[in-house]
Amino acid sequence: MLAQMLSKQYSQYQLAVLASIEAIRKDPSDPEHLHKLRTNTRRIRTLLKMFKSYLDPNFFQEARTLYKELIEYTNPIRDIDVFLIHLQSLSLPSRMSGWIDPVVQLLQKQRKEYYQELLNNLDPLETQIKKLFLQCSAQATISTKKALKKAIKKQKKAVERTKGSDLHRIRIAYKYLRYLYELTKDRKKVKQLKRIQDLLGEYHDYEVACERILEIGEQIDEKKALMALGAVYMIFCKRKSKIYRKVQTFTK
């Protein structure tokens, strides 16, 4: 039944979140720990969003607020991690060797500050997560299969409604749909949705990176760094345009 499925999945995701928190404490430099934390937090938020009507209202409200706050602490760190990864994939002209270093140093400094803010808040967040452990009780006797079918149908309509709108909304809609299909064990569908989600995610990454470049440009005085930053901006914009043409096939 749905109640057992929700309780089981929530507990599994919650344990994964707690494991990621511990890994982040031990090694904050590894972006993979943050990625796993964000992924399992999003899975929990999918359960909360798509099965809200079956959950205890007090539990739902407390869990929704908690995991939203956790994600918000990780957002700026994740954006910097992705930016640094994309920077490493670039091949600037040999004459520009080292010109981008001040940008990298600034990003690493900002990352350290954001990470410290996350670490400072992990203890109270972890306490709240443990408090909610095994409290995900559903007030329904509906079968899991029927509830999932209903949720997927609803989310498919939500995806259709986003067509033609901004790609960020489309990306989020597909993300919820993918996590729902994970619960059905339909690997083929999950793989298909992951390809779409990855493409939309890559577009979003470059969009955020281009905005950050403009912000960084106002914080750096070195002429060579600014010239290198301009070159990076042009490369990122071209990559973003190329991805945009691909995503148009399923977002119109």
Largest sheet geometry: none
**Helix run count:** 8
> What's the CATH architecture name?
Alpha solenoid
Structural domains: how many: 1
> How do the SSEs run, as a string of H and E?
HHHHHHHH
List keywords for this structure.
single chain; 252 residues; mainly alpha; CHAD domain; globular
What does this 3D model show about the protein?
- The protein has a single domain (2-251), classed as CHAD domain (Alpha solenoid), CATH 1.40.20.10.
- By secondary structure, it is mainly α.
- It is 81% helix and 0% strand.
- Helix 6 (167-184) packs antiparallel against helix 7.
- The mean pLDDT is 90.
Q: What is the secondary structure topology, with strand pairs?
A:
Layout (H helix, E strand, L loop, with lengths): L1 H25 L4 H20 L6 H32 L12 H31 L12 H19 L4 H18 L2 H31 L5 H29 L1
Helix pairs in contact: 1-2, 1-4, 2-3, 3-4, 3-7, 5-6, 6-7, 7-8
Brief synopsis:
The chain is 81% helix and 0% strand.
